[in-house]
Write a structure and sequence with these properties.
With 125 residues, this protein is mainly beta. It has one domain (6-124): Jelly Rolls. It has 1 helix and 13 strands, in the order βββββββββββββα. It has one helix spanning 121-124; strands at residues 10-14, 17-23, 32-39, 43-44, 48-50, 54-60, 63-67, 70-74, 79-82, 87-92, 98-105, 110-112, 117-118. Strands 4, 5, 7, 8, 10, 12 and 13 form a 7-stranded antiparallel β-sheet that branches. A hairpin with an 8-residue loop joins β2 and β3 (32-39).
Length: 125
C-alpha cells in the first residue's frame, strides 16, 4: 500500500504518549518505520536504550531530550539524531502538548532500565 491516509493510521498508547503509526511492514514498508508522537504536557517517559538509529523531528511544542545523560531542548523545526545504543529520555516539561515525527528502521527495540525489552508495534507491526 503506497499511500497511508491519515484515517488509516494506527494509534498506540504507552507511558502516556500516543504513537500514530503510518509506515510499518503492515502498511507496506519494508525497511523504514515512521510515526507521529503526541506527548501531553507534563509527560516524562522512561529512559530507554534504542537498538536502531532514530531521527526525531519536533513539529509543535517543546521537548527535553536526554541523550546519554546530556539534556537538549528541542523547539519546532529541530531534529535529533539518536544513534543505536543511545540511552534516550523524552520529557515535555511544559504546559502545552508537543508533537514529533519519528523515523527509524524496522526492527527497532527499546530496553528499559530494568532490562525489559520492548518491540514497539508502531515500528514493527
Amino acid at each position: 500500500m503506497p499511500v497511508v491516509r491519515a484515517s488509516e493510521a494506527v494509534v498506540h498508547e504507552m507511558h502516556g504518549v500516543r504513537f500514530v503509526s503510518y509506515a510499518t511492514p503492515g502498511t507496506g514498508s519494508k525497511e523504514l518505520a515512521a510515526w507521529r508522537g503526541e506527548i501531553p504536557a507534563g509527560t516524562k517517559g522512561p529512559a530507554h536504550t534504542v537498538t536502531r538509529e532514530e531521527v526525531l523531528h519536533l513539529l509543535t511544542g517543546s521537548l527535553r531530550l536526554t541523550l546519554d545523560g546530556t539534556a537538549h531542548t528541542l523547539t519546532p523545526g529541530d531534529t535529533a539524531i539518536v544513534n543505536a545504543g543511545t540511552k534516550l529520555g523524552v520529557e515535555n516539561p511544559t504546559d502545552a502538548p508537543a508533537t514529533m515525527w519519528v523515523t527509524t528502521s524496522v526492527g527497532l527495540e527499546a530496553e528499559l532500565a530494568d532490562g525489559t525489552r520492548i518491540s514497539p508495534p508502531w515500528a514493527n507491526a
